[in-house]
Amino acid sequence: xxxxxxxxxxxxxxxxxxxxxxxxxxxxxxxxxxxxxxxxxxxxxxxxxxxxxxxxxxxxxxxxxxxxxxxxxxxxxxxxxxxxxxxxxxxxxxxxxxxxxxxxxxxx
Length: 108
Fold this sequence. Notes:
Blueprint: H1 3-7, H2 17-52, E1 59-62, E2 67-73, E3 77-81, E4 87-91, E5 95-99
Antiparallel strand pairs: 1-2, 1-5, 2-3, 3-4
C-alpha cells in the first residue's frame, strides 16, 4: 500500500479506523510541511542573513519601494541617503533587498 493510497483508504468491516485516520493526518501534515512551512522558513532565514549583512555604502530598496544608499548603520535602524540632501531613517526589518551595481536585486 503506497502512502498516497492511505489517504483514500476506507476501513473495512472491523478495521481500525483510528489508525487509518492518524496515518491520514500525519501524511497531510508532512505534505503541508514540505509545501508550505519549510520553504517559508528558508526564505525567512535567507532574509535575516541578508539583513545581517547590510553595511555602509550598500544600495538597498525598502518594502515601500524607496531606494537609497546606506550612510549610517545601527543595530535596529539604517539611515539612507535618497537624494542629494535627503536622509531617512528606516527600520532594518523593512529592507526588501540589496541592489547590485546594475540596479537589480542581488541573488544570494
